[in-house]
Every structure is written in structure tokens, then in C-alpha cells.
Amino acid sequence: MSRVPPPPRGGRTPEGVPECRRAPGADLPDPTWQFFPPPWRWPEILDPRGYTWAFWRACLINVLCCSGAAAFLLFPKYLARQGMPEDGIGLVEASFWLASMAVQPWLGRRLDVLGRRRFFIAGSFLMAAVSFAYLAVPVHLATMVPLRAIQGLAVATYLTALTAWVTDQAPPGRLAEFLGIFGVTGLLGATLGPLSAEKLFKHVGDPGLFLGSGAVCLLGALWSPSLRDRLTKVASSGGVPGYWELAGSRNMRGTLLGSVAFGVATGSVVSFVAPFLDERHLEGVGILLAVYALASGGTRIYAATLADRLGPSRVVGPSLALQAGAILLISFLAPEGWRAMPMLLLAAFLGGTGHGMVYPALSALAVHRLGSRFAGTGMSMVAASADLGSSLGAFIAGYLVRFLGYPAMFISMSLLVALAGLVFRFVEERSTSPGKAHPPEPPACPLAPVPGLEVLPAPDQQGQVADSLGGQSCGLTVSVAPGQKAANLEGAERAGAEGFKGLP
Known about the structure:
about 65% helix, disordered C terminus
């Protein structure tokens, strides 16, 4: 068994060694450009190759469905108009997040066994059906709690399945880039949905919220069957470990910790920034959310390949530090002072930048840790952990506000998120240190000499390419006759061997 040596720079590929293209942006002369590439290098970094029409269809579908789901940010206002008390509204909203978390262990395994397509189709149609159902169901706690829980199940099923589908479309070395670009569409939907729903709410009344949300979700659902799974069955049912077995593995501890910390940062701010600004007699919640969304979306476009080039684990810690800094700035807002608005905008920018970097990095890290065969399970783990963190963040922050006040609460949550970032780094170093079972993250060049990536020579010149993503063997045999090109290039790219062009 012999390893494949890396191709020489500026020279011919050695005889008998497959040629390997370097990843876009890998030839940047100065490491500084890895963080701040100049505009004239953006076309090289955001390589259009690999962005298929199916991927862009998925992005448009996601804008529609996320717009419909985000319109329900006005749902508590509707419940209050109907006379439901505050504790009842809180219980209804909690049922959404609890159902979203509860479905993930069941969903992740089935995404890997049965494929992604049937789940995002079913989830999108269920989202539309629930939106229309609110028009006919009376507003009572006994009816709103189960209906909102079904809606949480539908949104979680749709979003997790479609995100896992996107991971199947990403070429090797560009996973975080694809997840980042796809994530921009969710942020766009989260911005357009509430704005449109507010207009409908004002001019049409309460039914406008449900009619508009159901219509855009239905449009996305009708378009979703046009997307096809890349593989009919991603993993055999007998070969898939249990959800909790994978979640409890040493290699996933850092990923789950980072996801919970991200959720804590998000939940504490989203739940209490509006009442805190009201206490300070400041108006700026809409501006805060707008700047936050713009910063998050812009970061995902600008730094889409950062996690791919540096490694996802190197991006998570600094991203959590940015979110911790944003929470700390909020605690220092002065009541009705001229410094309040610039500080609020800076906090929104830092928080949005951290958000835009950390979620694609965590998703890519989960796939790297578990392997491409278990991408669905990895996506469900990240989503469930982030939802758990959001619930914990809101719960802890609520008690801190009650006993310590808003400024002390935001300072405490900032320190908690920063501490979680440090612990994440420590856990990652331990899980990837020599002697552990987990292989190192795959480099940008998929045929570089790393453990788990070898070519097995044989007299008939057949080689088996191992999938370096998670160290799982893809079982692809590439037959190359002397003087001919490899016949199965498409299959080689699917197996994680992009750039394999056969023997000269």
C-alpha cells in the first residue's frame, strides 16, 4: 500500500500519479488574504464551478419556505389580540421549539438511511398545511399548542433535510462554502417574511398572516419535488450507528458544545434585547435585526470559503468570541445617550458577523467528524443542539434578569459564551490530538497524503479511492487503462476525489 505523493508546483504530474487540482484560493501568496481577500480575487475564491441549477433551485425554494416560517414572528401578536395571556403565549411558542428538538434524533438516522428528498418535500407541504389550518382553528391553548408543535416538527424536518441535501451537492473542499451561500437564502427569507407579513397584517387583518405564509410555503413545496437526491440511499440501514451513539462519540463533543454555545448566545439576545431597549427608552429593535441580518448574510458571502481553507474548528472559536463581544456591548448601552445607537449598531454588526461564520462552520465540522455517509445525522445534531442552547439561554437569562437586572445578565451571558468558546478549543485539541481515533480534517486538495486516503496499486492498474471525509471508504473502484482517461469521473467526484483525471 502506497500513498499518493502531492503533485509538484509548476511541473508535470509524476508518471502513474493522478493529477490533483488545488482548491480555489489555495495559491494566495500571503496568508493575510485568507482572511481579507481583495475584491479582484473574489471570482477565484467563490468558484462558480459546482453551483448547479439544482442548487440554485434549492436556494429559491428555501427563500420561499423560510419567508413563510419567519412570518410567524408576528404570531404572538396575533395570540395577544385574541386575548391569550402572556404565560399561554409562552407555552405555545415553547411547544414549537420542543417539537423541533424532539424530532431530530428520529430524523437524522432516517435522512441517512432513506435519503433527503422525501423529508424536505413532506416538511414543506406540512408547513403550508399548518399555516392554512390556523384560519379554521379557534384560539385556545388546547388547540394552539399541538398545532404550533406540528409546525415546529414541519420546519425542523424541512430545514434539516434540505441542508443535508446541500451537503451532498458540495464538491470536496467546498462544504462550508456551499452551506454558507445556502444559509444566505434562509436569512433573506427571515428578513422578507416578517416585513411582508406586517404589511398583510396591517391591511388585510389577522387572516393575512396565515394566507401569505401558507401561499409562499405552498409555492416552495410545489417546486421542491424537482430536486433529486444524488444517491438513492445514502447509507444502508444495517450499517448506520445509533443517533446517541454518534452524538456521544469523542469526536462530536466539540461540535455539540459549539452548537449549544451558539444557541445560548442567540437565545439570550433574541429573548431580551427588546425589553431591555424599552427599559432604556431606546428605539432600535428593527435596526438591530436589519444590521444583524445584513452582517450575517454578507459574512456568509464574503467568508464563504474561510472554514474550508482554514478548517471549520478554527473558525468556531473566534466566531463565538465575536458573539460574546456583541452581548457585552449591549450591556453597556446608556439610556437615551448619543452613544447608544452607534454602540447598538456595532453590537449588531459583531453579532451578525459571528452568526454568519459559526453556523456553516459547525455544520461542516459535523460532517467532517461523522463522515459524508452520516451528513443527515450531523445536521440534525447541530440543529438540535442549537435549539437546546436557545432554550437554555432564554431560561438562564430570564432568571438572571429577575435577580440581577439586564446589564448584569448580558455581562454574565457574554462571559458564559466566551468561556464556552475556550472550552470548545480545548475539547477540539484533545479530540484531534495524536493517538485519538479521529483522523485530521481533510485538506483542500482531496488527494493529498493524509491518513485514510491511499491508492491501492494492482497489476491491472485498478485503485480504490478512500473517502477522506471521516475516514470512511467509499468503495469506488476506478479502472484506468494505459494511455486512457478515467472513465468514471462523475463517480470519482461524488466519492470525494474531485480533480482525479486519470493517468497520463
